[in-house]
Amino acid sequence: MAKTILITGGAGFIGSHLADALLRRGYRVRVLDSLEPQVHGPGRQRPDYLDPEVELQVGDVQDADAVRKALHGVEGVFHLAARVGVGQSMYAISDYVDANVGGTAVLLQALLDRPVARLVVASSMSVYGEGLYRGPHGLVHDAARSDSRLRNGQWEVFTDDGARLEPLPTPEGKSPSLASIYALSKHDQERMCLMFGRAYKVPTVALRFFNVYGERQALSNPYTGVLAIFASKLLNNTAPMIYEDGLQRRDFISVHDITQACVLALEHPAAADQVFNVGSGRVVTIREIAEKMAATLNLDIAPVISGKYRMGDIRNCFADISLARERLGFEPQVTLETGMARLAEWLAGQEAEDRTLQANKELDLRGLTL
Asked: How many angstroms separate the CA atoms of 208 and 191, rounded?
């Protein structure tokens, strides 16, 4: 009989693609999802893209009864359910902590009575804060930018005595440096799951996702991934707005490569009780991403460079994926160009309500931008 896998938050962007991949591999898939209106729109309707073979249970991961019901007969769990967004987390503090930390606690409490063969938790690159740097005296794990430099438009990262630091690929061993409530909550999710797994002999894997993009990302959610936010602006014939100078360096990974890593984390014996970066291993600036997205959509719309800083943002963070390559055999398959072409093809049939102005005003009103 096919094994049943539960995906919390599985009706969303990443979860639905993961469900497709698991079905192709012969698993039965159950999803527990609250169908949050900010992500799915009003009405809490089953998404059209969710495969009909997926068993959808509508419920909140903070609801112990719903979680216990969803765990019945399950042999593996992907814990993806979370509130996402650095900016929003800085003012919707209790919502993020309740959903991300509280929801994880409810899940782990239920797993005490219904243990599974493997637990995989979606963590985030945000736990690193600034990525790894090299300075005059060696590696720097705790790089940070001062408010005074940021107010003067000095966006890069410097030592206290004014030496500019060189950003490096960030490995899993880099010390956490939590710059937002979202980052803190993802770190707590990760640590709680790994702690639980070790204590109760449940093989557990934490995957630190870098910047995920692709089809099905919520275009009308102003706190989703940056590529979806840019796409939403462009579909409304509006220029994307970029904080700072647009030269922040990131690692963008296709959702199809994310699902590959998730399946490996579920099935590979060497994955248990470890943390892995999941990125493309390629570095690109935010400005380049905005320009590439416009070009892919055949639009002549240049991004607007705001010269402003948003609290909780970091300058550079991109992935060292050598550990996932070595231990899991993970290898990204989708180039940025191919992935953006796929995204553009999907966007051709989509409509997006641009809510970024409202979101940006909220941040300004609360003093969360400089």
From this structure: 12
The burial of 259, by beta-carbon neighbours within 10 Å (0-12 exposed, 13-18 middle, 19 or more buried), is given as: buried
Q: Which of 314, 283, 276, 280 shows the shortest CA–CA distance to 142?
A: 314
Active-site residue flag, 213? no
Q: Are strands 249-250 and 204-209 parallel, antiparallel or unpaired?
A: unpaired
Query: Which residue is catalytic, options 182, 213, 243, 309?
Result: 182
Report CA 185 to chain centroid distance, whole Å.
12
Q: Tokens representing 2? A: 């096919």
DSSP, residue by residue, 249-303: EE-EEEHHHHHHHHHHHHH-GGGTTEEEEE--S--EEHHHHHHHHHHHTT---PP
- On whether the CB atoms of residues 109 and 64 are closer than 8 A, the answer is yes
Residue with tokens 């009864």: 65
Q: How many CB atoms lie within 10 A of CB 357?
A: 12
Block means of pLDDT (10 residues each) for the chain, 370 residues, are 93 97 98 91 87 98 98 98 92 96 98 97 97 95 92 92 94 95 96 98 98 90 83 90 96 98 96 97 96 94 94 94 98 96 89 77 83
Residue 207 has which token pair? 């995957």
C-alpha gyration radius of the chain: 20
Structure tokens at 173: 């061993």
Element housing 339 (H / E): helix 336-347
pTM score over 0.85: yes
Q: 101 phi and psi, to 5 degrees?
A: -85, -50
